[in-house]
Give the backbone structure.
Amino acid sequence: MLNYEKYMAHCTICPRACGVNRLEGQLGFCKAPTLPKIALVSSHAWEEPPISGTNGSGTVFFSHCNLQCKFCQNHAISEEGYGKEVSIHRLAEIFMEQQKRGCHNINLVSPTQYIPQICDALHLAKQQGLTIPVVYNTNGYESVSSLRLLEGYVDIYLPDVKYYDNALAESFSHAPNYFVIAQNALQEMFRQVGRNRFSPNGIMEKGIIIRHLVLPNCYKDSMRILDYISGTFGENTILSLLNQYTPMHKAKDIPALSRRLTTLEYQKVVNHFFSLGLKNGYTQKRSSSTSAYTPLFDGRGVEKSSP
C-alpha cells in the first residue's frame, strides 16, 4: 500500500502542485479533502461500447476536479463539491460491490485528486478478490509521477484530450500549459498499458481510448489534436470523437461557447480523422447533445446498504 497520508501533507498530486497540507484541512485549487469524496456509484450504459458492454461500466464519480471548465456538465460535483467522504476501506467495498453487480469494470471518473487513496483502496480490493479491469477516466491534466503510482492498478486509460491551443485551455478551463502536460500524460499511459486487448465478446480488458470533445468554433484545434495523435501513436489508436457538447454551467454567458456544435463543424473533424488514415474510432449522433445524459448525482451507492 502507498499509505496515502504521506502524499497529503504537501499535495503535488496534479500538475498544479499546490503544496497544501490536506491533512490539516488546507484546500488547493481542486478543493478536495483528504479522504475520497464520492457523488455517485452507478452502472453506466453510455460509455464507449467496449467499456459499457451489455452489463454496464461500474462508474464511481469522484467530487472536485483539478480543472474549472466553464462548460462542465458535472459542475455540481466538480466545482460545487457535492458528495460524501468515505474511508479507504469503504472505497474498497464499493469496488467489490460493483464487481458483484456484474459490471464489466471499475470506472474511476475524475479521480486525479485522489490517486494515492484510490491506489490504497484498489490494493485492499484486489486482496479481497477484485478481478475486473480498472478504468481511469480523466481530463488529461495529469502529473506523470502520480500516474506512475497507478501502474499495476489501472488496466484501461480513458483520457479526454481537451485542447491543443494553450490559450483555449487557459480561457475555458484555467489549465496552463495543458497540451504539453497532456502529451506527457498520454506517453506514460501508453507505456503502462501497451497494446489494446479485448475479451472474446468485445469488452476491453487492457489499453487506451482517447476521447476528444469537439467544441463550437474550435474544430481546427480538434484537427491539430488528431494530427498529433496520428503522428505520435499511429493509425490503430482508438479515438472517441464526442459530439455531445451542450452549453451548461458558465458557457451560456460566453459567446464562443454559448451554442451547440454544428453538424458541419463536427463532420469536418470526422472527415479529418479519416483523411489521416486513422482506423479505429467512435462518433456520436447530434442527438447526443443534450443534458439528458448528465448523471443524476444523488449519492446512490456511496453508503453501505443495510443487509
Summary: The radius of gyration is 18 Å. The chain has a mean pLDDT of 95. Residues 34-293 form a domain with the TIM Barrel fold (CATH 3.20.20.70).
